[in-house]
Amino acid sequence: MKTPETIIISLTNNGYRLAQQLCAVQAAHHRHKPKPFAATVQQYFIANHPLIFITATGIAVRSLAPVINNKLSDPPVLVMDEQGQFVIPLLSGHEGGANEWAREVSELMNAQLVITTKDAWQQPVYVLGMGCDKGCPESYLQSLIDQYISVEQLPRIVAIASLDLKQKEPALVALSHRLGLPFICYSAERLNTVANKLSYKSEIVYREVGCYGVAEAAALIHAHQLTQQKAELVLIKQKNKRATCALVRSYPIKKAA
C-alpha cells in the first residue's frame, strides 16, 4: 500500500517561502492558504497524510480537533513557526514517529527541536549576548560570531540579547534581522541581578552604562526567561575592538504529553 504523501500547510508569505525550502529537501506537496481551511486539512488528516503546519500551534490544534482519534492510528503532525526556528511534533510523537520525523526536519532546516513528550531527548536553547560601541559596523559583530560560535551552536541560537541602551543600535538590529532572530534588551538594573554569575565584573562598563557586563548578563537573563531553568555560560565574553559577545545555554524542562 502506498504511503500517503506529506502535506505542508502555510498561511503567510514567510510560511510560503519556508514551505518551498522544505519541499526542496523533503518529498512533500505544498498547499498555501487552502480553502475552506479547516475542512481541507481535516480531509488530509483523515486520509492519513503526514502534515507539517507552518502556522501558529493553536491554528493546527483547533483545525484538527474534530477529527483527532488516537495516537495509535492518527498520522504524525508537525508544527513550524514561519521563521523556521522551531519544529514541534504535535501529534503521534512516539507511536506515529512524529518525534523522530521532527528531529530529521530540524537537522535538515537547522531548526530548534522542541519535544514535550515524556522522557524525550531535548536540545538546549542558546542565547547570544552582544554589546558594541555606538556606530559599530555590523562586520565587527559578525566577526565575533564567525570566530567563536560553532556551526553546531549557531542553528540553535534562538535570540540575541543586549542592554536596553542598544535596542536601536543599527548594527545589532541589522544583525538580528539578517539572522532572523528576535533582539531582546534589558535594563542595566536587570542585568545587574546576575552580576555574581559573570566571568568578570567590569568597573569600566559599570561607569559607562550602569551594569558590570552586557553580553554575558543579557544572555543569562534571557535564556532563563525562555526556559525558567538554570542558564549557564558556554562562551564567556569575547571581544574585538568594537564589540563583545557571549553564549549561554539552558535546557527546557521536560513536560508530559
Question: What are the SSEs and their pairings?
Answer:
Blueprint: E1 7-10, H1 13-25, E2 29-32, H2 37-46, E3 51-54, H3 57-64, E4 77-80, E5 86-91, H4 98-109, E6 112-113, E7 125-132, H5 138-148, E8 157-163, H6 170-179, E9 183-186, H7 188-191, H8 203-209, H9 215-227, E10 231-239, E11 243-250
Parallel strand pairs: 1-2, 1-3, 3-4, 5-6, 7-8, 8-9
Antiparallel strand pairs: 4-5, 7-11, 10-11
Helix pairs in contact: 5-6
Please describe what this structure looks like:
The chain has two domains: 107 residues, Rossmann fold (3-Layer(aba) Sandwich); 126 residues, CobE/GbiG C-terminal domain (Nucleotidyltransferase, domain 5), CATH 3.30.420. It is 34% helix and 23% strand. The chain has 257 residues and is an alpha/beta fold. Helix 5 packs across helix 6. The two termini are 31 Å apart. The model has no long low-confidence stretch (mean pLDDT 89). Strand 5, helix 4 and strand 6 form a beta-alpha-beta unit. The strands form two sheets. The protein has a six-stranded mixed β-sheet, sandwiched between helices.
